[in-house]
Amino acid sequence: AFPSLAQAQASVANEVYQELGQPPVFLFCPTEYCSSLCSPSPSQSCYLLTIGRELLQGIGVIWTGPKVVSQELSAMLLKEVEGVLRRRPIIWDNLYANDYDCRRVFLGPYTGRAPGLMARLHGLLLNPNCELQANFIPIHTLGSWFRRELGSCAHPDHAGMEPAAARGDSQGLQDGSYSPHEALELALHDWVAEINRQALEPGR
Predict the structure, then answer these.
(1) The CATH number of 5-152+179-199 is which of 3.90.650.10, 3.40.50.360, 3.30.300.130, 3.20.20.80?
(2) Position 78 pLDDT exceeds 90
(3) pTM
(4) Measured between alpha carbons, how far is 59 from 30 in angstroms, rounded to an integer?
């Protein structure tokens, strides 16, 4: 009934979206949801071009970055994706996901995301470790990154620029940019306090 997979998916998504009364949050995960799955590239993908053209504007589109698990996210890539999809993407961030290898647990700070990305995003979802308690540092440092991003939104000229602080330099303490090292120290301090608080609770 449809000339392409993209047109079929967009048609079904649009119909469901309208049948539900066009809810404020309605997310669509495309078959090509990262750069490595696009052929030959996001900006030249017939599939994504069709999705961007056919999908109703109120529908959010999920994107994971260069890869399924992306070590880095740049404003340049997100600008390219926004142009193809005709809307800002919602990042589905798999930085900490370990459901594909439960022998690994990721406890480091939120990093590899260039400052100023918020201006290029419609939203961000963090896919956590499968182990609940192991997500304290990831979620805590994501919060630190988000607070700094809110401040950077007031300075759009700096969007996408990645100073040394974004790679862990302590300069972030001085210039107000996000410092993964500083965020990790704050998260560890609060995590120890939370562990101690739980240890003092009756019945534990």
Answers:
(1) 3.20.20.80
(2) yes
(3) 0.83
(4) 12
